[in-house]
Each structure stands twice: as structure tokens, then as C-alpha cells.
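new request in #modeling-help
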Amino acid sequence: MTTPVTPARSSRARTWILGLGPLVILAGLVALFLRFGPLGVFRAAFPPVEELTIERVLFPTEDLIEVRVVNGGPQAVTVSQVMVDEAYWMFQIRPGATIPRLGRATVTLAYPWVAGEPLEIKLVSSTGLTFAEEVAVATESPRPDARYFSTFTLLGVYAGVVPVFLGLLWYPFLRGVSRRWMHFFLSLTVGLLIFLAVDALHEALETAARVPAAFQGVGLVALGTLGAILALVAVGRWLRAHGRGGDARRERLSLAYLIALGIGLHNLGEGLAIGAAYAIGEIALGAFLVIGFAIHNTTEGFGIVAPVAQERPAVAQLALMGALAGVPTILGTWIGGFTYSPILATAFLALGAGAILQVVYEIGRLIARETEAGWGAWASVTNAAGLVLGLVIMYSTALLVVA
Amino acid sequence: MEDHGRNSLSLSRRSWLKISAGLASLFGGAALFGARSQGRYRQAATPEALGIHPSMTVGEVDTSRFDPLAYLSEFDYGRATKLADGRTLREYTLIAVDTRIEVASGVYFDAMTYNGRVPGPTIRCTEGDLLRVHFTNAARHAHTVHFHGTHPPEMDGLFPQLRPGESFTYEFEARPFGLHLYHCHVMPLKRHIHKGLYGVFIIDPPKPRPPARELVMVMNGFDTNYDGENEVYAVNTVAFHYQKHPIPVKVGEPIRVYLANLTEFDPVNSLHLHAAMFRLYRTGTDLEHYELTDTVLMCQGERHILEFTLERPGLHLFHAHQSEFAELGWLGFFDAQTAESMAGAQHGPHRAA
């Protein structure tokens, strides 16, 4: 029976041709445009649009400034001169003064900056356009040495690890409550998580605004958020299909791990922001800030432990979950403190938002399945109250964080 | 890593040596000048030793089309002929053209110019001469030439406004003697002037001023990003040019500076001379000096004649006393030389290349 194969094959080939045809034609058109340059007409008619973004201003020593620049515009830009506080200053630029599209460069100046005072860097391009960045407070930039590594680690431990583990201490309490109250606390967790997801999305979009246009910050947020949700949903589904299906204990356990992972990604983004803000002198490691983060993030530990409280997981497993959720904060403060980039921060925050939203969906499913009312369970007074209370707790504890 | 040629910090060490003398004086390091003339200067002048950091543009401009050093002493006396009544007729040609100029190394500015340069040629004549200025507009917008001085209103350069391709001849008698200006008077005035349509117009007194080393200096600025503020300030267009290339003068020779302010956006500009005082002739319309000073403040369109001599060899800084303008390019040096200092200068660190 070989005859049916041939028509199937030929029809498949036909599908491929039909699918790829437009791409081939597009490639041909692009080649034609590049070869014969009909775009040249437009090019001559408009003044060049240049776009440079100063990603970061570093102060490595007391008389040195380093400026990291990205070209997010449509064409190459040449940095011809540099001003510091309305004065031209001699500089060096690597790898070259002409920065290609999507390219990067580092400008170095010997400048006696004054610690604790604001400062403005202005790059002047060959066409006379200027690209400025204001530094709120000039302060010596962290070097990747032992002192700063320990500072950032401590910052991460205070803001992420300690609070999460504190939250896990609710485990014995949660173990003793009835199913109805358990659902209340799970709803409360959903409230906490929704707040975190919205917060992460907001941060992601805010950071996206600082991403050079060519890198499409908002598109990155959509990609990261939806990508994380869909990837995690698919993984969860695959695990259920291939794992020991129907094992409620394992499912709750894996849910707890997913929550920990989602919160971990969120905390990575948070760590990035804290590290970067600290590195550029925008925040001091004040007691108030640490207390604020501690109280705010303690709720995260509660969120992890709530779904598994009645399954009596091993202490080692709880510790692992805590580490999964909390330790990324440290990683975040390192990355943020030493090599912050808005693109990276946007990506991590978007991933975090997606991961958390996926967890919200999973907990919702869990409550719905354990209740006769199904998804209607959310209309019950205790669950609705729990969710709102979760939001309120996050809102009020967030007031303590003034970073 | 590609060192951006002249941008290299290590290379610029040499420039540091070159400019540090000036910076020293800018920050009151008069003692260093003494040290320099006694040959100790060289050791002291490293930026590390001085703790001085270089405020300056990086690199050099292309001087093949406009050389600020040459501009200082380029006077256009026109095509002179004697008229029947004994007067001198002087004919000049001005052509408005759009040109891209370099206002700091690597920073290009789409200028409107007379004769392809900013400032336009320095028109010079003697009081009583009959002037004919043949003006052609070869640019993309309407332009005129408005002269300061006394002349009939129809020769004032307000009307006619010449559209691209049109020509007009301005004819009037040169008076009174003094330091005057010419510039375009088509709206939007601010843009037409700041884009470069201006030049210096010198009417000498019938009995010439005593001989001197004569230098024309136009204080100007360029708003390269069109935000209503100048990104570049200079005398004669190029930021820091006379800092990188000090103006060579002789010790003891009379120096006469024709100084005009054509800065836009900022109401006033100024000149401050270091280590010497100058006699100020306001608008140059009187042969008696107005005052002896080292700083003069000038409104937009004001111009004065400055006369002085430099008594000792060495670099004499001059700059706007608005520090902001100075640090954005309006800063330069006179390099006063004697026969000996010129001979010794071959080894001196301050010499311009």
C-alpha cells in the first residue's frame, strides 16, 4: 500500500510551498530594496532621527565617570562631544565614537565629581543633537569586590530571604485550620499574589519606558508575561498528564513549588530594582526600608505555605520552597547593583508577573475543585473576603516601602 | 577597543600639557606662569600634579574651509575705484548660501551664511567711501543684508526681502566711523541670525588709527539641537579653537581687537582678559577711550574696540566671564612671544602644534 503516501506527500509539499511563498517574495523585495535603494528617496528627504539612551552613569573612582550608552534609534549615531554640567569635557569612547544601531558604547571622563550632588551628562552627536541623563546623587559606584558583594547579599537577605522564611512560620498555624478557613487563607494568598502581579506588571511597564525604542519594552512585557503564564500552564498540565495523576498531595506540593518559583521571579525583579537604586545612590539602606520590605514580603512566605499546610511537607521541602522564593532577591541585588540594564529588569519583572498570574490561576482551580460550587466558590463570603483582605494587607504593607 | 583617535585620554595628556597653563591661570595659578618662564613649568604642569581636569572639546575641526586663526585678520576692502568727485567707491559681493559648518570637532551645524562662512567676511572701508554691496540670495529662504550705521532707509536691508535667486545692490556712504555689523533682517530674525547670517563691518576714521595688530572677534553661539539654548559658545564660531591654538602676538606690540556680540538667546555676553588691561572704545565711534578695564559686558548686537599690549611673554587667557559660556567653548589664549621665547618655544609644552 504505497499509493496513498504520494498524494499525502505532494499535498504536504504544496502546503509548505503555500506557507513559505510569501516569505520568499518578501525576502526578494527586501533584497531589491537594499540593492536598488528606493528607500534612498525617503532618506534624503528627512533629517536623520538619532536616538541614544544613557543606560547608566557610573562613578568608579572619585575623579572618573563612566557612561554606558545604547543606540536604540534607526541608524548609527556618532558621539562627537560630551558635556558634564554644561561644560565640555575631554573623554574617551569605546569601542568607537560611532555607535551602530542597537550597538553600545562606554564613555569615560576624568571629572572631579562631587559626592552627594546631582550631575548632568549630555552627549552631543555629530548633528548637534543632545542626549542627556541626570544623576540624582553622584556616589561611588559599587565594584564587584567582597565588600559590595556582602552589602548586596545582605540587602537581598533582608528584603527577600528573611521575610519569606518568616512567612513560612505560619505553617504550624495553617496546619490546624478547617477546610473552610483553609480556603479563606488560600483566597487571601490569591489577593496577595494579584497585588504582586499588578505591582510587577506596573514596574515592568515603568522600566519598559526606559528601554531604548528599538528594543520595544512594552512588547517585551507582553512576551515575558504571557510567555511565563503559558509555559508554566503547559508544564503543569504535562506534569499532571505524565505524573501520578489524581494524587492531590503531590499536586498541592507542586503548586507550592510553582508559587515559590513565581514569587522567586518577582523577587528577582524586586532585587534588581533595589540593587540598582542602591548602586546609583537613590536609596540608602535605611532601617525603615528594611522593616518595610520585611513586613511586605513576609506575606509571600504565607502564600507559599498556605496550599501545602495540610499535606505536612518535610521541613527540608519547606526550606527549599523558601529558598526558591527568597534567594533570587540576592541574585537580583547583585545583577542590579553591578550591571543594571532596563532591558534585563523589564524582562525579569514581566516573567515574574506572568509566573504569579499562573499561580493565581492554579490556586483558583484548586479551590474550585475542592468545592461543590466549582469556580462559583469565589462568590462565597469567606473567599471573597479573604481575597480582598489579601489585597488590603499588601496595600498597607507596601506603604512601608518607600523605595 | 578602538581609541577614538584624538579622543584617547593617553594622547590627550599632551593636550593637557598644552592647556594646563591656561587652566592654571583660569584658576588663579599666576605663580605657575612665573614658574614656566623660569623653565620649571614643565614638571609642574602634569594634570596629576596640578589636580586639574581638562574642560575642553575633544579633537580638531577641519580648518580647510574656515580657519578661525585666519579669520582674525582677514579684511575685505572690496574692489576699490576712484570716483570723479575724488571719493573712493568700494564694491563688495555677498552671497547667501546654506552651508554645513563645524562648530566643534565632529559637531556639524546646518548654517545660513554669507559667502559660505560664519561669520561672513569682515567688510572694511574708510568713512566717506561710497559702498556698493552686491547681494545675491542663493539660499533656500528669503534673506537681506541689514547694515548698522547711518544710511537711507531704503538701503537698510529690511526691504526688499530677497527670495531665493534674487539679487539687490545696497548703496550708501560709509559713516560714521566705528565698529558696526551687518546681518540678515528677515523674520524669524532669531533663527536667521543665530544660523549664521552676520558679519563685522568696520569703518575706519579718515585719519587712520595708529598701527596695531588687528584682530576681529565675534562672540557667537550655536543652538545645535534647537531647544532655544546654545550648545556651543565661541569667539569666531569654533569652540575652544584659540585654546587649542593660541593666537600668537608679540610682547609689547599694540593689539586692537574688534569685538562684536552676535550671541542669540542669551541677552548678554562678555570678554575678560587675563593678566592685562585694555582701553575700551565703545562702538569705536570715538577716538578717546571710554575706560581702562579687563572685563566688558555686551548686549546682543553691541560691539567695541579694545586696545592693549601684553608686557610679558606667556599665555594670556581671555574668555566670557559667564563661566558657563567659557566652559561651553568661549575661551582662548593670546600667546605673547619675544624673539627669545619664540626660539625657546620649540621645546615649550604650551606651544600649539
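bot summary: The longest strand of chain B covers residues 88-104.
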